[in-house]
Amino acid sequence: MMTPLETEPTAAPVVDDLPFEPFEPHLLLWNGHMQTLAAAWLGDNRAPSPSSDEHRIQLADGDQLVIHDNQPADWQPTGPATVLLHGLCGSATSAYMARIADKLNQRGQRTFRVDMRGCGAGQDLAKRPYHAGRSDDLAAAVAYVRDLCPASPLHAVGFSLGGNILLKWLGEQHEASSGPVTRAIAVNPPIDLQRCTDHLTTACRGFYDRHFAKLLFQHVRETHHWRIQLPAAWSARRPRRLLEFDELFTAPRAGFASAADYYHHCSAARVIERINVPTLILSSRDDPLVPVGTLENQDWPECVRLHFAPRGGHLGYIGRSSSNDPDRNWMDWRVVDWLTSGGPA
């Protein structure tokens, strides 16, 4: 049986005044674990991927990314455009990516859903694996979209691991005279990779840790360019922990000395104070994967706003039908609110 999430002591609560609809969890999904698992596995929470045009982006090291372009019929060249980046073990067709792209399309925004290296439609187009520090890949995707939509206000959204990549990229490009995006949002971002990985070993008795290690191992085995790079030891025993996977596969294949070296250099927390683009951090206090203290105790610049829902889990936020939102997916509507209302920044 799952145990409740034990959160660490945090600093004084972050108070925000964003006029968001309060999140009220579905009556049957009252804690973070239930919200997280329901969002990942309940069929009625999924959405069909909108039809899209595919673009391939050539990266400097020879690998390629695929982005999925969803353009509303009435979109104009000066209309807004949004780049969306998925989380660990996800893709451009992940339910939250498809739902939110559709909602933004209905509000006149052209959307570009990015498949990270080796994910989704780009599964066999990359020799090198994706990871939490691939901000150069996001930069390439944004530059490509900027060329397609030179007159558009450009936004960016990152979910979970994609949120860390987005925040890292925003911090790295702070010296640009005019930022490539005008507004951004990161949902449940694991900005301190070491602390989040350590947390997974105990959260829900290690269930999430084992689950992600299994999914990543399967992904590598199913991907041609990565399969031949598998450590020989894994032929007898697959990795049981995310740390083990990163130590023996992610870190060496991405040029890091160790998993600890990878976590240190790729955590967005190192550069967050440099962000100068209006950005929203959306998370929950009962996220079983990202301890709220990693976000609450961080020094944030004035242009970054934080909103913590009391509940919602990790990319869950499945609400009651009595909500004022058009459907139960509270997270979707907060992303839409932030990107379409021109609200406080």
What does this molecule look like?
This protein has helices at about 30-40, 95-105, 135-150, 160-170, 195-200, 205-220, 225, 240-255, 260-265, 290-295, 330-340; strands at about 55-60, 65-70, 80-85, 110-115, 155-160, 185, 280-285, 305-310. The longest helix is centred in the middle third of the chain and has 16 residues, at about 205-220. It has eleven helices and eight strands. Strand 3, helix 2 (about 95-105) and strand 4 form a beta-alpha-beta unit. It has two domains: about 30-190 and about 270-340, Rossmann fold, CATH 3.40.50.1820; about 205-265, no CATH class. Residues about 1-15 have low confidence and may be disordered.
Alpha-beta classification: alpha/beta
Shape: globular
Strands of the widest sheet, in order across it, are: 1-2-4-3-5-6-7-8
Average pLDDT score: 91
- Please tally the β strands and state the result: 8
Q: What is the H/E order?
A: HEEEHEHEHEHHHHHEHEH
Q: Give the low-pLDDT segments.
A: 1-15
Largest sheet: 8 strands, mixed
Number of helices: 11
